[in-house]
């Protein structure tokens, strides 16, 4: 057992990682996931099975217990094919954290309070240790929007932002912004590109819009490019230039 900043962390070995170690300066992002499986046991089984070729650095169960599967200096296999800004295939640049949740396929659940409280503590520790910027605290659906939807619209990004983790625009600010003069996917994708999103294909415009809404407009994930979605994207694009 490790005790770090009053957190009890259980070690549980996964063989799914690159043996070559990386330096602290290589770790620039935190990627958040849900397990998307029917139980914690099944999740751990998959994350530690050599045949699955999947792992993460930390798993947080529904009780808020933290399990360390891969050392931070090793590259865990959690992000897969992914991009964000100038980063490609983000495993090598990131810490991956999985939250036990059945996900959209098996009955998407609210994340528990103990789970989120421990996540906040863990993320603060990692952010401080590696000097990670808020714009690089991301969800799997941010870095792989064509194939992933986790951690999903029930994940409390607004709460994390209130604790100094990640970016989430305040609704009061968005409401005060002037109406967008033009609603178009050309402009929307331009904003998303400035924010950091990649894989911006009009062929998958509804899927991409939904994933953006899953993070930034969680009460209405409909895939429709409307005024509110445009305003949020424009605000974040301007903010990204300053950060």
Assigned CATH class of the largest domain? Alpha Beta
- For this structure, the CATH topology of the largest domain is Lysozyme-like
- Number of DSSP-assigned strands: 11
Please indicate the percent range of residues in DSSP E strands (runs of 2 or more): 15-25%
User: From the helix content, strand content and strand pairing, which structural class follows?
Assistant: alpha/beta
- Averaged pLDDT: 95
Order of neighbouring strands in the sheet with most strands: 1-2-6-5-10-4-11
Protein described:
With 243 residues, the chain is of the alpha/beta class. The protein has 2 domains: 2-162, Peptidoglycan recognition protein-like (Lysozyme-like, 3-Layer(aba) Sandwich); 171-242, Muramoyl-pentapeptide Carboxypeptidase, domain 1, CATH 1.10.101. Helices cover 35% and strands 15% of the residues. It is built from 9 helices and 11 strands. Strands 1-2-6-5-10-4-11 form a 7-stranded mixed sheet. A two-stranded antiparallel sheet has the order 3-7. A two-stranded antiparallel ribbon has the order 8-9. The chain is globular and about 55 Å long. The N and C termini lie far apart (37 Å).
């Amino acid at each position: 057992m490790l005790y770090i900043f009053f957190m009890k962390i259980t070690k549980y070995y996964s063989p799914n990682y690159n043996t070559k170690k990386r330096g602290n300066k290589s770790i620039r992002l935190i990627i958040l996931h849900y397990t998307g499986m029917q139980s914690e046991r099944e999740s751990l089984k998959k994350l530690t099975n050599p045949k699955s070729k999947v792992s993460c650095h930390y798993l947080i169960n529904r009780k808020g217990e933290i399990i360390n599967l891969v050392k931070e200096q090793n590259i865990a296999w959690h992000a897969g094919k992914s991009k964000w800004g100038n980063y490609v295939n983000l495993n090598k640049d990131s810490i991956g954290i999985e939250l036990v949740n059945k996900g959209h396929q098996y009955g998407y659940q609210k994340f528990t309070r103990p789970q989120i409280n421990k996540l906040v503590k863990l993320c603060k520790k990692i952010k401080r240790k590696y000097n990670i910027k808020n714009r690089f605290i991301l969800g799997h659906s941010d870095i792989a929007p064509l194939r992933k939807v986790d951690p999903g619209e029930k994940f409390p990004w607004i709460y994390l932002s209130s604790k100094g983790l990640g970016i989430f625009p305040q609704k009061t600010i968005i409401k005060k912004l002037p109406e967008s003069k033009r609603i178009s996917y050309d402009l929307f994708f331009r904003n998303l590109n400035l924010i950091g999103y990649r894989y911006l294909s009009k062929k998958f415009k509804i899927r991409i819009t939904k994933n953006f809404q899953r993070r930034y407009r969680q009460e209405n994930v409909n895939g429709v490019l409307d005024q509110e979605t445009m305003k949020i994207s424009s605000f974040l694009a301007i903010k990204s230039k300053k950060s």
